[in-house]
Amino acid sequence: MTQTPHISVQHLNVHIGNQHILNDININIPDKKVTSIIGPSGCGKTTLLKSFNRLLDNTDGVKITGKVLVDGEDIYAPDAEVTHIRKKMGLLSQRPYPLPMSIYDNVAYGPRIHGIRKKQVLDELVEEQLKATGLWNEVKDRLNAPATRLSIGQQQRLCLARGLAVGPEIILGDESTSALDPVSTSIIEDLFISLKEKYSIVLVTHILRQARRVSDYIVFVYMGRIIEFGPTEEVLLSPKEELTKEYVKGFIS
Amino acid sequence: MRLLKDKILSKLMLVFTLASVSLLLVIGIGLYYHSIPLLQKSSWGELVTSSVWKPLKGLFGFYPFIMGTLWVTGIAIVIALPLCLFTALYIVEYAHARIKRILVPFVNLLSGIPPVIFGVWGVLFIIPLIQKYIAPHFVDYSTGYSVLAGGIVLAVMIFPLIVSIISEVLRTIPKELKDASLSLGATQWETIKNVALRKALPGIVTAVVLAISRAFGETIAVLMVCGNNAVVPNSVFDPGYPLPALIANNYGEMMSIPLYDSALMFAALLLFIIILLFNIISRVILTRLERKLIG
Which of residues 88-127 of B touch A (CB under 8 A)? Predict the structure, then answer.
């Protein structure tokens, strides 16, 4: 791969208060693949994910050094403009957080923010993204109902559609299935697999089975450091590092 | 035995609750009872719509007092709401932890200051300010003692209440919800406007309702600055005479005038009804709003 990857992290260090959360992180996230970040709770997986779209900015006492290059642009440079960086990435959080508005408005929210006003364009966008997330047939008759009336699984797919509607290149998933039932979980997992044709996907997960099923690459993070990074089968089945081996076997969690 | 205790306790609590709720009824009936002498002489409609206040001739028109109350309260809320909203937003969404630690006690301190001090402050600072610097731009002459002065003083007094309720409501909005909006490329202000304020709207309405209820009854500070002239105000620079001020100024003073005693009771009853009606209406609005937003 000679072309610059969408996300390239160089010597990233994150401190929050006195804690050194991420320690000298270097990684190139492969394009158009699913990359899972795995590791025990509190190891810094979510912090790493959130550093990609600068959602750490609003955390009290946070200090970030190093570079995160998104399409070659250092997003932590002093003159970096944060909204267009975030627009490149759709975020899917642990639990669905639909905005306090209708189903339609949830999907149209992002495009409207970025200046699309024409009803026809918005209509098409909403339909397209709801179809992409398999929600269209379930909600097409009640687009104006409040989003909170949907089931949790549907809400999570709505949140995904909302993220896709701003035309991102990257999808970030932060344990996106942890609040969902098995059926909804597998729907979301299948969506990730089908979406990697168009998007680069980074997931945080603590479910190894899910990491194995969905992802092409795996990053193993432990105590704020990247221990191992490689193709899924290699990392999970024949890990090079002792720590990874122990984690995969279930000795450390 | 323990179950019996539980049962008795719950019944006891019910009795206490009923007792405090029925107090409302008792007050209402009491006020009405004392207003009867006046009501026998003139009708409700007459008392509420007449502007003539000549107790010596037995003419009691409450319209100026009702309008005085509404003007002062209205001005107060118009001034206070935007200030409070931005203060609360700043404290919750923008301020750093250190600034927050300094700001919040200051806001709370305001609510601990006795009303009479606000009244004095109003007379010493607000009245001259209006008389010399504000009113001349708009009207020929104003003493400064006006519904505007009352509104400003009142606005400062309800400020801490509104700020603390709105900040509390804003704090309950999950960070992840705001992150969801931010991650779509919305700016912080867009996020606040479209997500946080929308979600907080029922809470903001509640804050305003509570503040207005308190403002209706505020007596001393308002009485000191709003002129106490029994005419209907035509502009914010006119004096007004709110109901609580009428009661406080005259109760126990001019009881030799026939029916005066009863008229003051009727003023109290009117205030009571205004606050009651206002609370009922806002409750209805709030329920509608919550249904519409949450579904």
Answer: 96-97
